[in-house]
């Protein structure tokens, strides 16, 4: 890990300590406050005490919930013979009645909330922060819950670049992330306010705080909660629907209630904000602050709708702003360490000259981290030091993956493997979806369509051919139907008591693919034993997986809340109509195709004419599949309904998931831990994998994630659509997850939902080849879209994969740096060029590392593409394929038009780069690695270049849990440096890993004149082994077999 900074202490020789906390004493001028009191006392209650109190709360409410349950059942029975819309409306009214009844003692307004007053400040023992009390400053307002009278604030300068501000209830009753599952960040070198990049300032009454840069204390604070810095309130609703009274800004006090917390900060007008997800944002990677954004944190299964909450929760943002005193752009970051359901609102009130961010939480605490940057990559790295750095991944994970929901048998699965090889399209990993299971039950195999012994032989054949296999795993277990039903995962899970329960201690029951299901409680200590046993038993059935695919782990259910077996709710398997079956056919033509004009073929051209746009269609309504499920019509069994309704797109928080008052180990309610389900499942799976596959690196891909999930898993961008807009949206998704420290991410190439077409699939396969996770996957019932299905797609795929596999050493090194330092492998252009504001909204192109620029085609019917060339003329960009210099026009403002016929994706190399490559990309990643290396050097205008590469065996587990540099040092690896200056390439290396393949080819671009001689380690290289091409200023030295375990030098003169 990088060293946070020199070890600095603000400790006086007599043992007293000085606090550099600024406090406003009333005249507006901050002054310094000194307090030599003892360290703050321990403030957290014992875990046992918390559990007992939670159990008492649950017990005291049981009778009320029972009455409500009986009411719902009675209503359901009364209206069960009536048409669905009729009685659904009555159920909805009854729900609304419960909501209003729950809130009848709440004001539903923060206008009269008094805020808090700070006192009893104590500097901490290390001199790097303080603890103080915050006391309610007036009568409770009880806006959406019960005001908490006494709070504690802890301010800690944890490193020179990280400031931690934690505001929590002094009695420690509010839910916080459970220790043991979420590690606190490791302390860096001791720092103090005098040396920290960020400074905490505050007003005592009413309490407010603001964060400034030490180097620029008089500039606009990076976070500012003072009422005088915020727009005057009240502000009528102006976001989304103006009649949504919950979006009124009726005041900006600090509110801290048991079920509602609010904190607001001023932002510069139309600030450059990135992050806050997971989301498919209509505004792109840069969030819409001017028109307004409501980012809801409530994990939800939905097929990638626009501007709604979906699979994961990541309450972190990066802001990039102009610092007038520094005369430069600077970045900082803010992370709310909380799993609470919440709305995070970015808004610019009408006629206001400033914007704001407001946090509205329905539980938890206000645990904030501030990162000073000052550049985008540094902010992302600093965030990684808090939530955990990404796991080291096996090299094979960077290969091409193929899947489909619809491979109905092992025979059909084998056919895909054979067809890919016959077409010579590299295939690294074969996947199976639901069809693998018997009766849709996890950890089984269908004995007829996927015979266990044949599965075992199939997977071993894949491994023998240097290929791999990944099956799907869900976050639930089937409920046994009766005493004769045998399903070991349920039986064993019941023995170990690992399933989520209702408040009355009965099993919580949902309904998913196998019918009735129960859900593991990942906070139960024995759940990891159960999960590991299930995976081990599955392996014994022949499913000898190389990695795992974790799905439906928001978690998803096809009914709302608790749905126990009843006579009118049959145990179906599967619980809903599957795509491709009668009543749910996937028959729509691809986007933009009009059969009335072009006929029934669906082809890219008909009679020599392009067919897209001849009858262009609008996007379909991207509704969640569960919205149309018959299981959403049964009587709702209610959970906890907070008075403040966060903007969950499904409405009620228990809709299509675990009911909010279900209970977890320790007495925790689902309301508090809902957003952690996928994260904790990924953690348990990763730990189980390490035990089941000793020494091997886990490769996991999860749909649901949370802050820090990158330590355990990668992510795919969910159920996207086979539409051009989603080709574009995939770029912002990949960029989001670089910020979220989950860099192994990608979209389903060619789209998942609906029917794709040849042109879209062609362009998408090429773009996806430059994203970390590269998989083609589509829905059951749609037309096949494997890349061999169209000749043009096969050609485009072979070309793009050849570039990807050549770049594997580069990809691998980028991800090693991500696991060591948190540096993002894929980057928005402004990450690399932060002083160029014209790049702040660019998200139609991206960079792989700092040296490869990708400008994909994301529109139909075109043969060229426009893009930015960053660097403002100070960077030379060269074409990957031809090595020619690419320049923008003098009046183009950095824009360039590039030829991009179908099957070609423009890729440019940045000057100053030195890239280690595989010289002969093979059919698999291992075959590629068995060939000699090549080095591609692109000289800067002054003749310099630099690059690094990390080489190891690509699969052995790094022996640590924390991805720290000390454990990394014990790993067998070799780190190479390539340094070019003054017409000399110097190759240096260190480490214990023996590199087998030599460096066989060196290509140097930007050599301004043909050399007279080339020398390797002082010896002339024969003329026949090198060639110079003046048209592209290229020198190629080949057939040299340089040992990368030794120091070498190549010169030309």
Describe the structure.
The model is unreliable at 1-103 and 616-636 (pLDDT under 50). The chain has 17 helices and 51 strands. The chain is an alpha+beta fold and 1053 residues long. It has a nine-stranded parallel β-sheet with strand order 30-29-28-25-21-20-19-32-31. The chain has an eight-stranded antiparallel β-sheet with strand order 3-4-5-6-18-15-14-12, with helices on one face.
| Helix content bin | 10-25%
Q: How does the overall form come out from the CA principal axes?
A: globular
Distance between the termini: 40 Å
Whole-number mean pLDDT: 88
Entry keywords:
1053 residues; alpha+beta; eight-stranded antiparallel beta sheet; 17 helices; 51 strands; disordered N terminus
Task: Tell me the layout of helices and strands.
Blueprint: E1 21-24, E2 30-33, H1 47-79, H2 84-102, E3 116-123, E4 129-136, E5 150-159, E6 162-169, E7 198-204, E8 207-213, E9 223-224, E10 255-256, E11 261-267, E12 272-277, E13 293-297, E14 314-323, E15 328-336, E16 342-347, E17 355-361, E18 366-371, H3 376-387, E19 401-402, H4 410-422, E20 429-432, H5 452-464, E21 468-474, E22 477-478, H6 488-496, E23 510-512, E24 515-518, H7 527-540, E25 548-551, H8 595-598, E26 605-606, E27 609-610, H9 670-673, H10 677-692, E28 700-702, E29 714-716, H11 724-739, E30 745-746, E31 748-749, H12 758-768, E32 775-776, H13 791-806, H14 808-821, E33 826-827, H15 829-832, E34 846-848, E35 852-854, E36 864-868, E37 877-879, E38 885-886, E39 895-899, E40 907-910, E41 913-918, H16 925-929, E42 933-938, E43 945-951, H17 965-969, E44 974-981, E45 984-991, E46 999-1005, E47 1014-1016, E48 1019-1020, E49 1026-1029, E50 1034-1042, E51 1048-1052
Helix pairs in contact: 1-2, 7-10, 12-13
